[in-house]
Specification:
The protein is of the alpha+beta class. It has twelve helices and 21 strands. The chain has a six-stranded mixed β-sheet. Strands 1-10-9-8 form a four-stranded mixed β-sheet, with no helix packed on it. Helix 5 packs antiparallel against helix 7, helix 6 runs antiparallel to helix 8 and helix 11 runs antiparallel to helix 12.
């Protein structure tokens, strides 16, 4: 292991912001500061323990893995230049990119890659569990000159997309307090309730990038507050706008970009909480609502209705034969509730993060529609940190509304429905789903693999695991002074190619 170095003094939860916020600090086509509006307070800067998608979209600019997704959803070599996968999918051998430096100036070596993958997979001495559960099947990681060989305990043909896991220097004792990666931007500061600032990596291995000197992720109370800042010129880019908010902006000042994504907005039903532990009740909820109405109210129609746990953006892995399975039928919903022992309905609490207006509005519409079948909903708005800790991780809720995000990989979309998965916050349990998910990584025939994914989606539908609402279209407002911003089919803010016109 390399000699330890003294980390910069940096509190793990807060750093003093060294600069004021700027809107368009233009210095030609390169340089300047771009400000991006976000609505959620960052919680973790350790790329191996991060959970929230809002944290990941910031860290995407700081950390990189051996592979990396691009804006078309393609998985490309990054800190590796290529990989050799054994015929039985038990050995992945990566050839490392030369000339890569970490933000602290040290060279990235095979030892750093070995350390990072061992840390993520739980193989470091003293670790009792993996930090990245998807890499728990790794049995050994070894450096072989300019290559790193990863050996698995059993075949896994779906693992490559998880080698997007960040490579970090083995000399940094606390990566959460000192977020040092290889990405196009370096961590600069975090001020609670205000912003996260990242600065240009002058030693980035791709010498052409990035173009700007600095990016600021400015925390806003909600979408409406962000809209005001857009108009005032204190924010340059604002993602995840609703269509009606975007239409309020002057087209001379902002370009409105839209793109479908693999996000899944879910009305999540805790399968362990009565009466939601009864599949008949969950089915009643699914047919009591009108997805098109909800999409119209919350996204001005800019969303694709869903009946199961995957977005059509996932292509062949999505099962189109399941489309339209749930049609609104209030009378049948009442019959199902009566059959389940709730002829007069029941009370239901919908816990929703207050910083996401789309989810709050969805909860309000759900409250209105479910009242018709006797389900009386109480909406409990909580701050993001509380939702993340108590609802998602603590699973202390009855129902909630949130958008599930994932890598642009079908296994990453569905793995959360395994009974033992840490992301299975709805407490779904079907041994057949566990069996099918275990079989997918072992399958090398693509047609057979697609069928396995379709079988899982069908079981989730038959169990009425939860109520899937929509794949919301991502609408982003970008200042007309800026070009090079690319939308991704997943939850990413890539600022590496952004520049001033």
């Amino acid at each position: 292991m390399k000699k330890k170095i003294i980390s910069l003094i940096l509190a793990s939860v807060c750093a003093i912001s060294m600069t004021g916020l700027a809107g368009c600090a233009k210095t030609g086509t390169t340089g300047g500061t771009v400000t991006v509006g976000i609505t959620q307070e960052p919680s973790v800067f350790d790329p191996h323990t991060v959970v929230a998608a809002g944290d990941r979209e910031i860290l995407f600019n700081i950390f990189e893995g051996l592979y990396k997704f691009d804006s078309d959803g393609n998985l490309n070599p990054c800190l590796a230049t290529g990989v050799e996968i054994s015929d039985d999918s038990t050995v992945y051998t990566f050839t490392l990119r030369e000339g890569v430096k970490f933000h602290n100036g040290s060279d990235m070596t095979a030892d750093d890659v070995v350390y990072s993958l061992k840390r993520a997979s739980g193989l470091l001495e003293g670790q009792d569990a993996p930090l990245v559960s998807e890499l728990s099947g790794i049995k050994a990681v070894e450096a072989e000159g300019s290559k790193v060989k990863v050996t698995l305990a059993e075949p896994d043909s779906e693992l490559l997309s998880y080698f997007t896991t960040a490579i970090i220097p083995d000399e940094v004792a606390d990566i959460n307090a000192t977020p040092i990666g290889t990405g196009p931007f370096k961590f600069d500061s975090y001020t609670i309730g205000q912003d996260v600032t990242i600065t240009k990596n002058e030693s980035y291995w791709n010498s052409e990038l990035p173009y700007i000197d600095k990016a600021v992720f400015k925390i806003t109370a909600d979408m409406d507050a962000g809209l005001i800042e857009l108009r005032n010129g204190t924010i340059d880019i604002y993602p995840y706008l609703t269509t009606d908010r975007a239409q309020q902006l002057d087209p001379n000042d902002f370009t409105i970009l839209t793109k479908g994504s693999n996000m899944v907005q879910i009305f999540a039903l805790n399968n362990k909480v009565k009466p939601l532990d009864d599949a008949r009740v969950r089915e009643a909820i699914n047919i009591a609502i009108n997805r098109d109405n909800i999409i119209s109210v919350t996204m001005d129609g800019a969303g694709a209705p869903l009946t199961t746990a995957m977005s059509p953006a996932m292509g062949k892995y999505y099962d189109t034969s399941l489309d339209g399975t749930y049609k609104q039928d209030v009378n049948k919903a009442k019959e199902l509730l009566k059959e389940a022992g709730y002829p007069d309905g029941f009370d239901l609490t919908i816990t929703v993060p207050s910083n996401y207006l789309v989810h709050v509005n969805t909860a309000v519409e759900l409250q209105s529609e479910l009242e018709a079948v006797g389900i009386k909903c109480k909406i409990n708005q909580v701050d993001w940190a509380t939702w993340l800790d108590d609802t998602y991780q603590g699973r202390n809720f009855e129902s909630t509304v949130i958008a599930l995000t994932s890598n642009y990989a079908p296994f990453d979309v569905l793995k959360r429905y395994r009974s033992f998965d840490s992301g299975n916050f709805i407490n779904y349990n079907n041994p057949e789903v566990d069996k099918l998910m275990a079989a997918i990584p072992l399958e090398t025939n693509e047609d057979n693999k697609v069928k396995l994914y379709h079988d899982v989606l069908k079981l989730l539908l038959e169990d009425h695991a939860s109520c899937y609402i929509q794949d919301p279209e991502n609408t982003v407002a970008v200042s007309t002074k800026i070009s090079g911003y690319n939308l991704y089919p997943m939850y990413v803010q890539d600022l590496s190619k952004v520049k001033f016109n």
